[in-house]
Design goal:
single chain; alpha/beta; Rossmann fold; 3 domains; five-stranded parallel sheet; elongated
């Protein structure tokens, strides 16, 4: 095929070469996913990993996810594409984070797309099953439409090339050149496919799978074969997932049936190929959940931070490697590739502009802003703006101290704005920061690294009255809270026992979404060690928690106190509407400032 080979030489020039890699860490290594993160974080190769990173397009209903992603090691996170998937798994007692699929971490090639070019992608084999009986579907379609295009190339999966699939011979007989596509053991497979999809204008395929999303994500136009290829029940018999859960075979056959696909994705069958499917593909692939590569490496368990467990206390210790990789070099990876942050500018401008942006930006969507030259990742822009306004705009947490090296305990640290405020105002302080939500704790840790803070220890635990773990409502914003009736089981730490190890605590900040009543009552015997407290008190539930109990604890331990920043919680259903014109709601949040005379 000298003529055809000449046509694809220019394409081959830019495609990454195939490099075999073993799968030492399971799915996280497939198609070179772990190598993408290793390379971008300065590692020569992936380290031993303790996570599962899910590839591709999940079309199973949420109720099947615990079976599909089941692991006996519940402390090892399952990294999925979409927020709703992670929430369902967390509610099922599995640790999960939404970070997008591995493909969205590939780099834009910035290549000029070959106009009127067609990439043919036949139904491919898997590691446990070969599929060659549907070859004529795609072959006949290719021969029929090839004259419409200036260049036509077939993309054969690595598994089929390795198996010497006879479809290759059929393409060669018809003078159609072919290129090896994705191979599960190829270190460069994901970047290889992105390069192909950004080269070609169209793809022709006879089956529904992740390659359609990948191609659409890269701006390719999708052409489906008139006759879609489908797997029969026998082809699943050797695949571990379906051996273990045979009831999923029927479900998968239904999901991949032409009738179901046409009903679910009618836009794929439109004759007009001018519709831009990249936004749809980005959503399905979880592109908006794309994280900083250092944060992803944290999910993998690659931290260049030593984790020590001592009497139930987790300490994150700094070392020279930590400083090298996570010092204040302002080199935070963009959450959205080829896009600007949600904001870049001064603190004053941030307080003005983010207020407006917070009303239109999607709730509980991760992003980042650059303020005064420092990058901050947020879990929810609405929460981030209000915390920024309170902490840096209104100086809510400022306090006077004679201590040169004050000890500060930050309970409910969220993404770390209060922690950062304390660390910068009191640079010689020692800070212990607690955040219960595992995803938000990871953002907290990333922000601490990015700001170059070396005096902070973080704890991915809920502050509570025992160390036995709690059910926690993972809200994705600043309202996550302990919910003993339902929620995700997470670790807890008894604050009383933690405080007992210190003789003097200069500041205890407590923002724990309603748990302050029980915690303060439990800590009463050790509050003589605390000099100042800032407590966000919540009157949101209907269980009649007594404000008097808070004030009684403070008075009995020698604190003076005052109340400020009281606002009505209009987003909560009222229980007993007051008979007053000025106030028509019984739910509220307030801040209590408590101190002792020195």
């Amino acid at each position: 095929m000298p003529g055809a080979q000449k046509d694809i030489n220019s394409i081959l020039e830019f495609i990454p070469k195939i490099e075999f890699i073993p799968h030492e860490n399971g799915e996280i290594d497939y198609y070179g996913a772990s190598w993408l993160i290793a390379k971008s974080t300065g590692l020569e190769k992936p380290l031993t990993s303790r996570a599962r990173w899910v590839h591709g397009w999940n079309r199973f209903p949420a109720r099947f996810l615990p079976n599909i992603y089941y692991t006996e090691h519940r402390s090892e996170p399952i990294l999925v594409a979409k927020t709703e998937e992670a929430r369902y798994l967390n509610k099922s007692g599995m640790l999960s984070h939404a970070i997008g699929v591995p493909f969205v971490y590939t780099k834009n090639t910035n290549l000029n797309r070959i106009q009127n070019s067609l990439l043919v992608m036949p139904f491919h084999s898997t590691t446990h099953s070969l599929h060659s009986d549907t070859k004529n579907n795609i072959l006949y379609d290719t021969i029929y439409i090839r004259k419409k295009y200036d260049i036509v190339v077939s993309c054969i999966s690595g598994m089929d090339v390795a198996a010497n699939n006879d479809l290759i011979n059929e393409f060669e007989k018809n003078d159609i050149p072919w290129i090896t596509g994705a191979w599960i053991f190829d270190k460069n497979a994901l970047q290889r496919m992105r390069t192909l999809f950004e080269n070609f204008e169209y793809i022709l395929t006879d089956f529904i799978s992740s390659h359609i999303l990948y191609a659409a994500f890269c701006g390719c136009k999708i052409i489906l074969s008139d006759k879609l290829s489908c797997r029969d029940a026998n082809s699943y018999k050797c695949e571990p997932l379906f051996v273990k859960h045979p009831h999923l075979i029927k479900e998968n056959i239904i999901l991949n049936s032409p009738q179901h696909i046409k009903k679910q994705y009618p836009f794929l069958f439109e004759d007009n190929k001018t519709t831009d499917l990249s936004l749809w593909a980005s959503k399905e692939l979880g592109f908006h959940n794309k994280r900083d590569h250092n944060l992803v490496s944290h999910f993998f368990g690659w931290d260049n931070i030593q984790h020590h467990y001592d009497d139930g206390k987790m300490k994150i210790l700094n070392n020279s490697i930590y400083s090298k990789h996570f010092g204040n070099n302002n080199n935070f990876e963009m959450i959205s590739e080829n896009s600007d942050p949600i904001f870049r500018g001064s603190l004053t401008d941030a307080l003005n502009k983010l207020k407006t942006k917070a009303t239109s930006f999607p709730r509980r969507q991760i992003g980042y802003a650059v303020i005064e030259g420092t990058r901050f990742t947020f879990a929810d822009l609405h929460s981030f703006y209000h915390e920024l306004d309170q902490i840096f705009g209104k100086n809510l947490y400022g306090f006077q101290t004679r201590e040169e090296t004050p000890l500060i305990i930050d309970c409910g640290a969220h993404v770390g704005l209060a922690t950062l405020y304390f660390a910068r105002r009191y640079p010689k302080s020692t800070i212990h920061a607690f955040e219960a939500d595992p995803t938000i704790h990871d953002i907290l840790l990333s922000n601490i690294r990015n700001c170059g803070l070396t005096n902070v220890t973080t704890y991915a635990k809920a502050v509570w009255i025992h160390d036995d773990g709690v059910c926690f409502h993972l809200s994705g914003d600043d309202s996550g809270h302990i919910n003993q009736k339902e929620g995700t089981q997470i670790p807890s730490i008894r604050l009383k026992r933690f405080l007992e190890q210190f003789d003097h605590i200069e500041m205890l900040k407590l923002d724990v979404e309603g748990a302050e009543y029980e915690i303060l009552d439990d800590c009463l015997p050790v509050l003589n060690r605390v000099q100042n407290m800032i407590i966000e008190v919540h009157r949101l539930d209907d269980d009649k928690k007594s404000l008097a109990s808070i004030f009684n604890v403070l008075e009995s331990t020698g604190f003076q106190y005052t109340i400020s920043d009281l606002h009505t919680a209009t987003w909560v259903q009222p229980m007993d509407i007051p008979p007053f014109d000025f106030i028509t709601h019984d739910k509220c949040i307030m801040t209590v400032f408590a101190w002792k005379h020195t």
